[in-house]
Specification:
Elements: E1 3-8, H1 10-18, E2 24-28, E3 43-48, E4 54-55, E5 58-73, H2 75-82, H3 91-101, E6 111-126, E7 142-144, H4 149-159, H5 164-167, H6 171-191, H7 198-214, E8 219-220, E9 228-232, E10 235-240, H8 248-265, E11 271-276, H9 281-289
Length: about 290
């Protein structure tokens, strides 16, 4: 689980903003596709290097998106697949933008991208220093947002700075959902998975993966191999792994801890429901009655 603040070309952002895009293909020169704890569902914040978005040489964050997938293609294939989602009106503009930022001003054989959804833009930049986080003016590409609790603060700031014209009427709800989802991830990080043996954990993970494939709207919570979650406009469904050999009190305790820690990071109203992987009706009723 991670969140990254990435330095972004202002022209690219402007096209997405003007067209009110809710998805974008955030291209990068590097073909590196592995990042520390960074995976589908994590957040990319846009650090603008435009002077009007800087304060005392500090770059401001002007929006964010949620990672859906990472791709590596040739520039031409990247354009053919994503077109204006790359942030430019024509392939010629896209190609020249890549050449401008490459070290030898030539077109690389391959580039990578973060495909982002739920993109939201802010009316005014937000500065990480306001959240107590220092960022070097010499940062050339990206920085991890640390500590992770700062992401919650950043999204909280963002809810009050949304550019509704470019992000749509539902943007505030989407930011609120992202804040709640991140609070759930932080809660899971504190709770952890059950202390199973390696073989039992692998077996349980297979069960949950099959369940997730049948319900693609749900996703694993953070780095958990056992817990699935679905958030929809502050309605939270958490699916907990269960088997006949598992003491039901462990599931009850797990649910109680989720309620405690989610409230710690997201002290607003929401509805939370729990369901066991085997859909044990009596156990579901017990957990949800506590």
């Amino acid at each position: 689980m991670a969140a990254i603040a990435y330095i972004t070309d202002s022209k690219l952002l402007e096209l997405h903003r003007l067209n009110a895009h809710e998805t974008m293909n955030f291209w990068r020169l590097s073909v590196k596709t592995t990042f520390s704890d960074f995976a589908k569902g994590d957040l990319v914040f846009f650090l603008s290097k435009d002077r009007e978005h800087m304060k005392e040489k500090e770059k401001g964050i002007v929006g964010f998106g949620k990672l859906e997938a990472i791709h590596v293609y040739t520039p031409k294939t990247m354009w053919n697949k994503f077109g204006q989602e790359n942030g430019y009106n024509t392939y010629e503009e896209f190609r020249e933008a890549i050449k401008r930022v490459s070290k030898d001003h030539s077109l690389p054989k391959r580039i990578s991208s973060f495909y982002l959804k739920n993109v939201v833009f802010f009316q005014a930049p937000i500065y990480l220093s306001e959240l107590g986080m220092d960022i070097s003016s010499k940062t050339e590409s990206f920085v991890y947002i640390k500590p992770e609790e700062s992401v919650i603060k950043l999204l909280e700031y963002g809810k009050n700075a949304i550019d509704i014209w470019s992000s749509g009427e539902t943007a505030a709800e989407r930011v609120d959902d992202e804040e709640l989802e991140y609070a759930i991830k932080l809660a899971q990080k504190e709770i952890g998975d059950f202390n199973f043996s390696e073989s039992k954990l692998a077996s349980a993970n297979k069960v949950m993966k099959k369940l997730q494939q049948k319900n693609p709207a749900a996703s694993f919570i953070g780095k958990s191999k056992l817990d699935l979650c679905l958030v929809n406009n502050r309605d939270v469904l958490i699916v907990l792994y269960n088997s006949k050999n598992l003491d039901y009190r462990m599931l009850v305790g797990q649910a109680e801890l989720y309620k405690k820690y989610i409230k710690k990071y997201y002290p607003y109203s929401y509805k939370i429901y729990f369901k066991t992987s085997d859909n044990n009706r009596k156990l579901n009723e017990l957990i949800n009655s506590i």
